[in-house]
Automatic annotation (TrEMBL):
<comment type="similarity">
    <text>Belongs to the TRAFAC class TrmE-Era-EngA-EngB-Septin-like GTPase superfamily. EngA (Der) GTPase family.</text>
</comment>
<feature type="binding site">
    <location>
        <begin position="118"/>
        <end position="121"/>
    </location>
    <ligand>
        <name>GTP 1</name>
    </ligand>
</feature>
<feature type="domain" description="EngA-type G">
    <location>
        <begin position="209"/>
        <end position="382"/>
    </location>
</feature>
<dbReference type="GO" id="GO:0016787">
    <property type="term" value="F:hydrolase activity"/>
</dbReference>
<keyword id="KW-0547">Nucleotide-binding</keyword>
<keyword id="KW-0342">GTP-binding</keyword>
<dbReference type="InterPro" id="IPR006073">
    <property type="entry name" value="GTP-bd"/>
</dbReference>
<dbReference type="InterPro" id="IPR005225">
    <property type="entry name" value="Small_GTP-bd"/>
</dbReference>
<dbReference type="InterPro" id="IPR032859">
    <property type="entry name" value="KH_dom-like"/>
</dbReference>
<keyword id="KW-0677">Repeat</keyword>
<keyword id="KW-0690">Ribosome biogenesis</keyword>
<comment type="function">
    <text>GTPase that plays an essential role in the late steps of ribosome biogenesis.</text>
</comment>
<dbReference type="InterPro" id="IPR016484">
    <property type="entry name" value="GTPase_Der"/>
</dbReference>
<dbReference type="InterPro" id="IPR027417">
    <property type="entry name" value="P-loop_NTPase"/>
</dbReference>
<feature type="binding site">
    <location>
        <begin position="56"/>
        <end position="60"/>
    </location>
    <ligand>
        <name>GTP 1</name>
    </ligand>
</feature>
<protein>
    <recommendedName>
        <fullName>GTPase Der</fullName>
    </recommendedName>
</protein>
<keyword id="KW-0378">Hydrolase</keyword>
Amino acid sequence: MTPVVALVGRPNVGKSTLFNRLTRSRDALVADFPGLTRDRKYGQAKVGEMEFIVVDTGGIDGSEEGIELKMAEQSLLAIEEADVVLFLVDARAGVTPGDIVIAHHLRRQQKKVFLVANKTDGIDADSVVGDFYELGLGDIYQIAAAHGRGVHSLLEQALTPYLEVLQQQADGDDADADEWDDEWDDLDELEPDEEEGEEVSQPFADLPIKFAIVGRPNVGKSTLTNRMLGEDRVIVFDLPGTTRDSIYIPMERDEQQYVIIDTAGVRKKKKVYEAVEKFSVVKTLQAIEDANVVILVIDARDGISDQDLSLLGFTLHSGRSIVIAVNKWDGLDQDVKEQIKLDLERRLGFVDFARIHFISALHGTGVGHLFESIQEAYQSATRRVSTSLLTRIMQMAQDDHQPPLVRGRRVKLKYAHAGGYNPPRIIIHGNQVKDLPDSYKRYLMNYYRKSLKIMGTPIHIDFQEGE
Ligand code: GDP
Ligand code: GDP
């Protein structure tokens, strides 16, 4: 599970500065979902190879009333959902009453809390941070978020247990990959003839496909989950869970195994829950990270919102495959439907590789076809393609449409091979390939997409100079 790190502290201690540094260029998902505070921000970040989710909780200063109190409650909820809390204080301001209130609250939580003194640049930090021991939270980590000082080592410490698990998993994966590579080498040796070799294969065809149904509150996730499961399977899984845990429900259809990652809390159907209670951004983001394929549900009647785009962005950044389901397609006038389709084309043009389904989860219309796109997206992302086939496709593309001249010399593509899967990565070697214009890169990408029928997943192409 992708760990969640919450940034907590009074206003002005540097939480946003740290958040921005950790998430860099990646899009932050700003949670202004109905019923949730506007002030929480979610982003993806990395230490080394490890991805984590970072949540900026907005400020609490301990003296809130009215609307501010509501916001403080939201911060508290974010703390509850986090695996690790970074409690920021301002080294220059010293200990304030607000810090004491927050520390009091944090000490009562069963949470790993790291006390972080920010803004230690340009002051004699060692002589001032000692005061913060009175907060009773142990060691004090010194950083300067604005300059990045101390940030990396802080995160390494805070996420140590997760990094260790990741390392163990990586060791296991490497073993699998090696095994597979060996097999592939054998194949190449045995069947050097391009016509006879197995050029495309699906090594994971027997594994269940994990898919997550995600979207804003009330778009119809629970209704869709029930539809996809078949009405009466759900009740069986009446398991207890916290707000942030998704439930994993195995199912089978047309001899393919699936696991639905249920973010909507279908199991709680018997009770009446407010959208706010059942909708958790952290849960949604973790489900995306853990899925092979993400079904993003959009409400046809609301059009595409910024939150839909954020969820889409998060999915693409995570490299997950995607299928888009435009729900509540029932009972709409023809001209409204046309309008919605135009809007989708305009705003979702950048994910033209994703299948879009117009469905009614309520009536079941179009729901069956979603499974076909899930399979297609999964297979596209995990399919193995041989070096010879990738190179042949590259040559065909080059024959159809020559690369341009750069500084008087024609760019030459020599050969291509796979550089990874899920999402697929293709590495092309050649002369001056780094200088290829973006338009030609896009052309190559589309050529691969069409020839290999890759849908539902991004493709990355890297270019390498020379042999
Ligand atoms: P937030 O309200 O906790 O999100 O705080 P901000 O990130 O908005 O930061 C508040 C102020 O502190 C801004 O003016 C920042 O530029 C400044 N600040 C943040 N980090 C540092 C730091 O490491 N050193 C210094 N000197 N100033 C900082
Ligand atoms: P969730 O919060 O995303 O899980 O949304 P729900 O599945 O709880 O659905 C929210 C509301 O939308 C409920 O009143 C559903 O009956 C309604 N709804 C869900 N799917 C459809 C649909 O395809 N058409 C129509 N007209 N209403 C739907």
